[in-house]
């Protein structure tokens, strides 16, 4: 089967975050399917009550698939800081508060790290694909790096300006989007999705 047959003619991107929707649209381009975002369809934003990235991604994808009757792809992601026992993790969006203020969230990460010499962090992305009448599928990706202070760059979204991926000299906030797509947690999860599609073909 082709990607189109597996994913449907029209796929809902079950996210209300414009930064993510932009990246997911770019990463889906090679699949050649029409996409529409949950925001455009005015779908409700479900409460993220799961305890893992995968559970929250599944919850968002299932809600969107049920309310639209279409296949839906959700992304639950976040920044994991081992020296902070994994925080902010699944609470990454919530650390920015109702105003979605990521300068504030980044300051909190840096403040809580204090003088810690361990500034290692990684981004995780769990993608969930829900198709009407089919079992839900989860795909995951991760990228490791170190936390910078002060943050650098205006590109990307969320915690990007404080994240320097391993082996690179530019933060995610400074990088050209195409470069971020070559190595990001989200791109790696898409590679996992792509290999599943190829196996199923
Ligand atoms: O749930 P949806 O509607 O998709 O949008 P959201 O922003 O609430 O998304 P999450 O619940 O998955 O929260 C993940 C947060 O982690 C951060 N994050 C995820 N991927 C990121 C990336 O590539 N670069 C920077 N920050 C990222 C970003 O701040 C997100 O708001
Ligand atoms: Mg969310």
TrEMBL record:
Keywords: Hydrolase, Magnesium, Metal-binding, Nucleotide metabolism, Nucleotide-binding. It is an enzyme of class 3 (hydrolase). The keyword Nucleotide-binding applies. Binds 1 Mg(2+) ion per subunit. CDD domains: HAM1. The active site is at 76 (proton acceptor). Its cofactor is Mg(2+). GO terms for molecular function: ITP diphosphatase activity. InterPro entries: dITP/XTP_pyrophosphatase (IPR020922), ITPase-like_fam (IPR029001), RdgB/HAM1 (IPR002637). It catalyses: ITP + H2O = IMP + diphosphate + H(+); XTP + H2O = XMP + diphosphate + H(+); dITP + H2O = dIMP + diphosphate + H(+). It holds the Pfam family Ham1p_like. Its EC number is 3.6.1.66. Substrate binds at residues 15-20, 77, 157-160, 180, 185-186. Mg(2+) binds at residues 47, 76. Homodimer. Pyrophosphatase that catalyzes the hydrolysis of nucleoside triphosphates to their monophosphate derivatives, with a high preference for the non-canonical purine nucleotides XTP (xanthosine triphosphate), dITP (deoxyinosine triphosphate) and ITP. Seems to function as a house-cleaning enzyme that removes non-canonical purine nucleotides from the nucleotide pool, thus preventing their incorporation into DNA/RNA and avoiding chromosomal lesions. Belongs to the HAM1 NTPase family. This is dITP/XTP pyrophosphatase.
């Amino acid at each position: 089967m082709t990607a189109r047959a597996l994913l449907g003619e029209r796929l809902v991107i079950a996210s209300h975050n414009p930064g993510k929707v932009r990246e997911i649209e770019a990463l889906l381009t090679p699949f050649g399917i029409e996409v529409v975002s949950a925001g455009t369809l005015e779908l409700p934003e479900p409460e993220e009550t799961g305890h893992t990235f995968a559970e929250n991604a599944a919850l968002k994808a299932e809600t969107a698939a049920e309310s639209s009757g279409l296949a839906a792809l959700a992304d639950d992601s976040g920044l994991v800081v081992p020296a902070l026992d994994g925080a902010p993790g699944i609470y990454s969006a919530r650390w920015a508060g109702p105003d979605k203020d990521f300068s504030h969230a980044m300051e909190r990460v840096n403040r809580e790290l204090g003088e810690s010499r361990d500034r290692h962090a990684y981004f995780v992305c769990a993608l969930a694909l829900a198709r009407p009448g089919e079992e839900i599928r989860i795909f995951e990706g991760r990228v490791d790096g170190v936390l910078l202070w002060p943050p650098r760059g205006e590109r990307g979204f969320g915690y990007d300006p404080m994240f320097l991926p391993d082996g690179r000299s530019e933060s995610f906030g400074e990088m050209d989007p195409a470069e971020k797509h070559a190595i990001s947690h989200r791109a790696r999860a898409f590679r996992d999705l792509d290999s599943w599609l190829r196996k199923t073909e």
